[in-house]
TrEMBL record:
Gene3D superfamilies: 1.10.150.130, Intergrase catalytic core. This is Recombinase XerD. Transmembrane segments: none annotated. GO terms for molecular function: DNA binding. The keyword Transmembrane helix does not apply. Residues 2-89 form the Core-binding (CB) domain. PANTHER family: PHAGE INTEGRASE-RELATED, TYROSINE RECOMBINASE XERC. It comes from Sporolactobacillus shoreae. Residues 110-301 form the Tyr recombinase domain. GO terms for biological process: DNA integration; DNA recombination. SUPFAM superfamilies: DNA breaking-rejoining enzymes.
């Protein structure tokens, strides 16, 4: 089974290096393929990829359904498996592709849930500004809504990535190409209070430049931030179905509602290789700061 795991790792390396997928997406692939290989070993008795048959893959889809997975989740897991078997075939690590005839249930095309601007303002105003933790949480929330950055990008920020004088933040993005994102006055003020009153007073090693720290003065994890955001939503009385990704989705919806063009929204969010950029690579771009000032709900506050 060491060879099996090595081939999965090689596939993930290719996705990271050549396709530049985000850490979250790579984690999903790793989880999907780990579950798939465990199923083949434990349920189908396969010890190598050459032993995997079309029937085994059909049984895997039925097993996923019996385990209570939604059609959307099954479709995603099947896509991971298909991509992996194509990798094996392309690199002459397998002679056949057992997924070639795989029939996957159509994913549910539900509209993405978003918060209204009023709900977003309520969420942003419910952090306790009398405590260091509350000040930190308010700064995180304001920055997430100001920029639309991912939680995985937020936790990688360093103090020097901020320029509060000029009002922007430097974000690494998912493909290692940094982008400069403007931030409005509410986010700038919340960050200034956090850095002055909280972050600068935390005694850490000289090499510890992470912007947001947990109670143990260590880097926050993605799971830790999600927990903080869910608790903030509960305090604000936001709908039970709230998820941290809704902040990012809500910002995109609010910008478009207020007249932002799709390409500027994609640039702000760090989305690359979209249809527009592929079809019209030399298309003139709107100035992001101008679009931000005109369309972001909190830019003029």
């Amino acid at each position: 089974m060491k060879a099996v795991q090595k081939q999965i790792n090689d596939f993930l390396t290719e996705l990271s290096d050549e396709h530049r997928l985000s850490t979250n997406t790579l984690d999903a692939y790793r989880s999907d393929l780990g579950q798939y290989s465990s199923f083949l070993r434990e349920k189908e008795g396969c010890s190598s990829w050459s032993e995997v048959s079309e029937l085994a893959d059909v049984n895997y889809l039925y097993w996923l359904r019996d385990m209570g997975n939604s059609s959307t989740t099954i479709a995603r897991k099947a896509a991971s498996v298909r991509g992996f078997h194509r990798f094996l075939l392309r690199n002459h690590l397998a002679e056949t592709d057992p997924t070639i005839a795989m029939k996957v249930p159509k994913s549910e095309n539900k509209p993405r849930a978003v918060l209204s601007i009023e709900e977003m303002n309520t969420l942003l105003s419910h952090s306790d500004q009398k405590t260091n933790i509350g000040i930190r949480d308010r700064a995180m929330l304001e920055l997430l809504y100001a920029t639309g950055m991912r939680v995985s990008e937020l936790i990688r920020l360093n103090v020097q990535d901020l320029d509060l004088t000029l009002g922007f933040v430097r974000c690494g993005g998912t493909s290692r190409n940094e982008r400069i994102i403007p931030i409005g006055e509410p986010a700038r003020q919340a960050l200034e209070v956090y850095i002055t009153e909280v972050r600068n007073k935390v005694k850490t090693g000289q090499d510890q430049q992470t912007l947001f720290l947990n109670r143990q003065k260590k880097e926050l994890t993605r799971q830790g931030v999600w927990k903080i955001l869910k608790q903030s939503a509960e305090r604000a009385g936001i709908r039970p179905s709230f998820s941290p990704e809704m902040i990012r989705q809500s910002l995109a919806a609010h910008l478009i509602e207020r007249g932002a063009d799709f390409e500027s929204v994609d640039e702000l969010m760090g989305r690359e290789n979209t249809y527009v950029t592929r079809r019209f690579p030399d298309r003139p771009k709107h100035q992001l700061k101008e679009v931000y000032s005109r369309c972001h709900p909190r830019a003029a506050l």
